[in-house]
Every structure is written in C-alpha cells, then in structure tokens.
C-alpha cells in the first residue's frame, strides 16, 4: 500500500458539493478596542461565523508553527507551511539558531568557501533585513557570523542593510544601526579588521521584492549594493536622520536607497573575487536578488550593468526545486507528505488561487516549499497580478477578481477542493493605515459572504481561517503615546466551519493547544477521509 493512500472515514463521506478553504491573511482575533481594525470593521459575515457552533481559535505563532519561542510572531510563509503540512516543523529562525549554536554552520563547505574567498583578497559582503524581527532575519545571527568571520581571519567585510519598520516599530532603524556599529567597532578593534556598513535602503523599495511583483525594487538594491549608485552619505545613521528630517511621515520600510562614501567614492561595492551572503532565512523576499547574482547571460529582469564574479550563498536555500541559491549555509526543513499530496494521490481535483502577493503562499509554501504542481492532471493554480501600488491606496486589492475566479471554479463542477488567500488584512495592515485596513477587512468580509452563498448553492463546505494576525492590532500605546504597529501580532486566528447541510454529525474536538497544523487533518475529515496517523489531530470529532 502506498504511503500516500488515504482511508475513507467510517462516519462521514463528505458533502456532495466542493470544499473551499479561505485564508484571510493577517486577520486575527485581538482586543475589542479602537486599535483593532477587524473589530472596528463592519463584518456581518465574519460576525456570524465567529459566533457559530463550529468555531474555535488557533495559535499561529511561536512553537505552534515551529518557531523558537512563543514570543516569536508567525508569518505567512510558515503559516502556510503548517496549513499544508498538517504537522509542525522547525522553521527558519530555529534552524539557523541551532546551526549557529552547534557550530554546524561554520563547519560546512559553503561557509568555508565564503571565508576562503574573502581571505584570498576579496571582500566578504552580507546583505539582508536589518532587525531582530525574527520574521525574515535576526541581527543576532548576523553578529554571530561577523564575529566568526573575524575569528577566522577575514579582514574586510561590508554590510548592506535593509531597514525593516514592518516586523518591528516603523521608525526603529537608528536603534539597529547603533547596535550594529558597536559590534563592528568591537570587531575592528579586537581583530584589526575593516568591517563597516556600505549601503542600504528600505525593504519595500530596495532589494526585497517577492514573486516578481516589481523587479525595480531589486534593481535599486543592485545599483546600491553592487554598483554603488544611490544617494551618498557619510554613515548609515546620517542617511536615516536626513530622510526622517526631510519627511516627518517617512517610515523605515520606504526609506530610499543609500551608499556610504569616503572621499567621494563608495566604500563597499561588490567586485569580482568577493563573497556575498544573503542573511535572510525566509525565502520569499530573498529569491529575486539571488537570481540576479546567479543569473547568466539570459537574465533579463533589469540591466545589471556589471555582473561581478562572486561566491554567492544564502543563509538558507530559498527554493529547493529551482535550486535558488545554489549555495546555502543551512538546509531548509524537509516537508514531505503535505495533505494535498495525499489528495493528488487520491485523484481529487483541486485549485489554488490568490493575487501575486500571496500566490506563492497557497502554492509553494502550502506544498512544503515545493515549486510547481504536485500533479498537474488534478490541480489548477491561478495567479492574479497584484497592482504595483502602496496597498493602503487601494485596500480592496484584487479581492473581487479572486472571488470571481473562485466562483467560476466552484460552479464549474470540476473541483472537489479549493484554497485561496485574500491578502488584504496583511498587506494593508502592514502600512499602519487604520482607515485603509478597516476597508480592507470589510472587503474580505464581503468576498467571504459571496463565497458562502455559492457553497450553500452547491451543497459544499467552507473553512474560513487565517495564517497570522496583523490587522487586529494597528497601534500600541506607551505612556499615553500611540505608535502605529505594522508588524504581525501574537494573537490567535479564527477557525470557522460553514456547513449548510450540517446535521450534528460531528462537533469541535477538545484539542489541546490547537494551531494551524491541525487544519489539514480537519480538511481531510470533512472531505470524507481519515487523516494520516502522524498528523496533528483534527479539530472535529465524529459522533460514532
């Protein structure tokens, strides 16, 4: 018997209509006050779901999704990993922390090659998100690598820092720069080295594009990090201070690119014979810059002008199927036997749809960090192009188009299972614009209502949940001062089953510490299958 074979459930055959799983990205359950855009929004459809019998709340952060501690916020990537895998796997930050603390990272061939390259006369460069937000990166990991490189004899190192302001307070760049400058000064004094910051910029306009949404972002980073072409300053702190002074509404994630110059020349352009390490552990915003470094003559996303011959590595491999990048310091989690692999083996026809900003989440991350189809004969994926615009300026995003596509797919009769992601609560929530985020949540609520009507019409089942919180906490208050909050939250997320034909065949199970990984077994049960034995337990239990 194949290890991917599913057994039919003895108590429930599933409904005759399709099952739809809706991920409302960034819509968590927070305090019922005026910091919570979900609470403030008019959401008649969600209100009914949240007050229905078949409802519970799920943990979407910390240990429940494979992160080191419950102080670590969840994110869309690991959230969708957990939703698709049905089990909890150690994730990016935890994997990297383990590799550093055990020394495995520094014993590997990739690290040794990077150090050797730098010691042969090249420069060692680090590029990545400059914060301890622990979503894409963590400066503690950067510092560990800097100190180890110095101990191993590297004399010249340059940092290319990408301001955060999204997973951490929106104007915190100077705090991280000051801390990093102290680390660099200590290294330079102790080892007689020349380690310094060379360039940078805000994450949303410099280097960290994802899903091919706007390659101009990567081009700006390339010009700053590689070519030394960006606004010049004498220090990273001076760059940030100047941009704050010029625009008091400026936030870190949108600060323009800069280079550090000395005597009119950039101090750290990337040249032939250098080594480059991209130190983000999360993959989505690391893939495109990796392609720019590793792409050959057929690379056509933008004019790189000059392509230095470097040894390039990521702290992790960001796409295992496409081998991006070729070299990496820490292996990503091996996630096999996702629940959609089981469904493909059973020849269950299914679809996945979202707009560009979250398309990779309902496909690549959902499928265990695997590109492409599991089985193209029974799957259909559709990506709806996102607008290239700041999301609070168009908070409806592509919700209508996602909804229309899904309605057509459901009514076609071709699919038994479908999944979609509405990015609005997350992408608009990240802007810190409360009014726009309220509109985003209301947009999602309206779309959910349309889809529930179709499920009723077709005799199916719908699950409505989220991958993490964001819109549920839009500001924090300290000493009477409110500060916009643009990061994800530590709040639980909703889990709702909408089953118009429900006849009390099952009930919400008393699962201890339910989390996102419990959803997969639940979906399989509602489709009429038993879940694999090693999956996290289902959120429902059948009356026998």
Helix content, binned percent: 25-40%
Q: Pick out the low-confidence regions.
A: none
**Cα-to-Cα separation, first versus last residue:** 27 Å
**How large a portion of the residues is in β-strands, by DSSP E?**
15-25%
| Number of separate strands | 20
Average pLDDT metric:
95
Described by the principal axes of the CA atoms, the overall outline is: globular
Q: Please report the number of helical segments.
A: 17
Given helix and strand content, the structural type is alpha/beta
Written description of the protein model:
The chain has helices spanning 37-40, 44-50, 76-85, 92-102, 104-107, 109-119, 139-151, 173-191, 215-227, 236-246, 287-294, 339-345, 356-365, 399-411, 424-427, 434-458, 519-526, and strands spanning 19-24, 55-58, 124-129, 156-163, 194-202, 231-233, 258-262, 265-266, 275-278, 311-316, 328-330, 350-355, 379-384, 417-422, 461-465, 475-478, 481-484, 493-498, 506-508, 540-542. The chain has 544 residues and is α/β, with parallel strands linked by helices. It contains 17 helices and 20 strands. The strands form 4 sheets. Strands 3, 4, 5, 6, 7, 8, 9, 10 and 11 form a 9-stranded mixed β-sheet that branches. The protein has a 7-stranded mixed β-sheet with strand order 2-18-15-1-14-12-13, sandwiched between helices. A two-stranded antiparallel sheet has the order 16-17.
